């Protein structure tokens, strides 16, 4: 071939190839525009077309992975994240490793998921809390919860049904079902019709029937979903697209965000007078409301500034005058670099929510947070699965509830499931024996207390085996069982009641004492609203000092109390001051602080009838203003 023509041919080829690349990049840019507007189905079509033409880039592979990830198609997401990590390792961001790890869990590739989380941790230099534990899956599956679940008949095949909410005696939920309107609007996130709120009746089997659209102006041509009814039934808080006063608003990228709205009850069963909540903003989403059982706090999900991950859980006080308090992030104990969403607060005060930011079974898992114990746990199977499980609600009185999942269908076809928690009927049996002889100590006094040291029940250990039975422990709770008998040291053990019905046996051993110190160590008393040590109290404390010096093996737990006058918080603080002055007297007189423990109990352990509002004499109140002493280790 003539070299001149060869050169021209080569130049034309290079120019054509360059033009192809430019055209491909132009298509990717179009896909990115759709992606940034959450039109994931449209962006996928563009990206796939470009990828099939042979074009490759880190941005293309990551956007394909993300678009499938956000539509819960985790199998496809894994395939594209895999290409991204294999071919463009240096370009992979921590967030992409995090989403890749979550997608791997949803297809049960747990070992590979752990590796991706390790890379995420390395890039983030995250030396603190790890949201993944290699033993999580084994632990969750070994502690299968006592729930029976059923798919609702009201689900519409091929459409999404989710976001169940208690609506009086009925069920409120969101659905994309086509109910025969002339025009069906299609949302480009997932290529499904827009959501509306529906109401159905709940029958005795937990099934939902006769579903119809919520009446009134709440439903519009755009999305309405995830609603919560106020405890008094007068207000409905719900999620909607940013569509207020017939105006459709968007952020600087032309993206329409989600907002929270409030509707008030009018005549009959209709909610109207829809208003936007004041802490929404066009630049971020605020969604998925849940009201605390006392009606004082509104919980929700948002990606507003200050969010730790892709979306966090937040709360705001609902003031009596109808105004709102300051918006507050629930913090790192709950929120992760992933998505925390769909909160629900049960009558038990616990917070239930879904997250893909922890080492669960896969996709979104339901977790529960106990505010009192500061404990977070995966709610386990069968509620959770390897797919997305979310919008969990629970009536703790009946043990019945509902949640949504895509476990049985196409990733975009969510269904609602009902569940019932089987009744837990456990029994706690306590036997009291002599530590040395192992003989039963019939007649010993046994008390069962909660972890706040409040006495729940007490009685004698009866013959023939010094047995005391507590017939109403709550499953999943911890208790303190204390046994005492004259001539013996008092002993206490913690016992955990499993989640499932069972009989729990506990043996408490009491050790005989050489001296009945209880005859010599008496309570000390305080003046009303005072914490100083009176002369008569000092005399009793001097006796304690004497015995503690003679018996260096013993230690003492000091427990201080108040009478019922004054508010609870003040009395708790007063009892703490009394406890401190009691211990400081002993320390000042030569007793090592290491041998002393104690705390104040406020007015929670009165010795007589003198509770709030009861007319008592000063002498009767005096009996409650005391520090008492529990001898230990002797």
TrEMBL record:
Residues 513-634 form the OmpA-like domain. It is found in: Cell outer membrane. GO terms for cellular component: cell outer membrane. Signal peptide: none annotated. Keywords: Cell outer membrane, Membrane. InterPro entries: 6-blade_b-propeller_TolB-like, Bact_OuterMem_StrucFunc, OMP_bac, OmpA-like, OmpA-like_sf, TPR-like_helical_dom_sf, WD40. This is Outer membrane protein OmpA-like peptidoglycan-associated protein.
């Amino acid at each position: 071939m003539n070299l001149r023509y060869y050169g021209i041919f080569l130049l034309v080829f290079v120019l054509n190839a360059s033009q192809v690349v430019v055209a491909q990049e132009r298509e990717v840019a179009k896909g990115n525009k759709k992606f940034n507007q959450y039109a994931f189905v449209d962006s996928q079509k563009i990206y796939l077309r470009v990828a099939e033409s042979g074009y490759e880039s880190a941005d293309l592979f990551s956007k394909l992975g993300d678009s499938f990830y956000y539509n819960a198609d985790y199998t496809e997401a894994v395939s594209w994240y895999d290409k991204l990590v294999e071919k463009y390792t240096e370009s992979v961001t921590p967030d992409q490793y995090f989403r890749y790890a979550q997608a791997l869990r949803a297809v049960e590739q747990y070992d590979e998921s752990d590796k991706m989380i390790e890379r995420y941790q390395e890039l983030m230099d995250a030396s603190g809390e790890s949201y993944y534990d290699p033993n999580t899956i084994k632990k969750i599956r070994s502690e299968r919860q006592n729930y029976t679940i059923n798919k609702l008949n009201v689900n519409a095949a091929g459409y999404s049904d989710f976001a169940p909410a208690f609506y009086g005696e009925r069920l409120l939920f969101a659905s994309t079902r086509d109910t025969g309107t002339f025009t069906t609007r299609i949302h480009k996130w997932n290529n499904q019709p827009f959501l509306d709120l529906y109401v159905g009746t709940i029958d005795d089997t937990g099934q939902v029937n006769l579903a119809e659209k919520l009446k009134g102006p709440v439903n519009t041509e755009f999305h309405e979903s995830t609603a919560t009814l106020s405890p008094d039934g007068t207000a409905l808080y719900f999620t909607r697209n940013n569509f207020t006063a017939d105006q459709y608003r968007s952020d600087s990228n032309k993206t329409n965000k989600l907002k929270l709205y409030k509707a008030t009850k009018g005549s009959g069963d209709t909610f109207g007078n829809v208003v936007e909540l004041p802490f929404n903003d066009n630049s971020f989403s605020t969604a998925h409301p849940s009201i605390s059982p006392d009606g004082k706090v509104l919980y929700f999900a948002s990606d507003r500034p200050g969010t730790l991950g892709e979306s966090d859980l937040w709360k705001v006080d609902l003031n009596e005058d109808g105004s709102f308090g300051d918006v507050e992030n629930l913090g790192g104990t709950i929120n992760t670099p992933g998505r925390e969403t769909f909160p629900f607060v049960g009558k038990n005060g616990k917070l239930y929510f879904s997250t893909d930011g922890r080492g669960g079974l896969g996709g979104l898992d339901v977790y529960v947070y106990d505010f009192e114990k500061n404990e977070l746990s995966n709610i386990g199977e069968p509620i959770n699965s390897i797919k997305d499980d979310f919008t969990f609600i629970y009536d703790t009185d009946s043990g019945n509830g509902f949640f949504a999942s895509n476990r049985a269908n196409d990733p975009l076809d969510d269904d609602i499931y009902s569940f019932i928690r089987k009744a837990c009927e456990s029994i706690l049996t306590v036997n009291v024996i002599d530590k040395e002889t192992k003989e039963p100590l019939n007649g010993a006094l046994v008390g069962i207390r909660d972890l706040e040291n409040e006495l729940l029940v007490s009685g004698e250990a009866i013959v023939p085996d010094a047995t005391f039975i507590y017939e109403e422990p709550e499953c999943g709770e911890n208790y303190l069982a204390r046994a005492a008998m004259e001539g013996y040291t008092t002993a206490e053990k913690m016992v955990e009641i499993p989640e499932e019905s069972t009989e729990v046996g506990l043996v408490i051993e009491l050790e005989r004492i050489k001296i009945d110190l209880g005859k010599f160590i008496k309570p000390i008393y305080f003046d009303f609203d005072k914490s100083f040590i009176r002369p008569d109290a000092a005399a009793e404390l001097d006796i304690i000092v004497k015995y503690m010096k003679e018996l260096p093996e013993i230690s003492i737990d000091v427990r201080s109390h108040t009478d019922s006058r004054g508010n609870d918080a003040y009395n708790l603080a007063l009892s703490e001051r009394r406890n401190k002055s009691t211990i400081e007297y002993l320390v000042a007189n030569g007793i090592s602080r290491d041998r002393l423990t104690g705390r104040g109990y406020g007015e929670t352990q009165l010795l007589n009838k003198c509770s709030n509002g009861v007319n008592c004499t000063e002498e009767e109140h005096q009996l409650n203003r005391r520090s008492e002493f529990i001898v230990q280790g002797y």
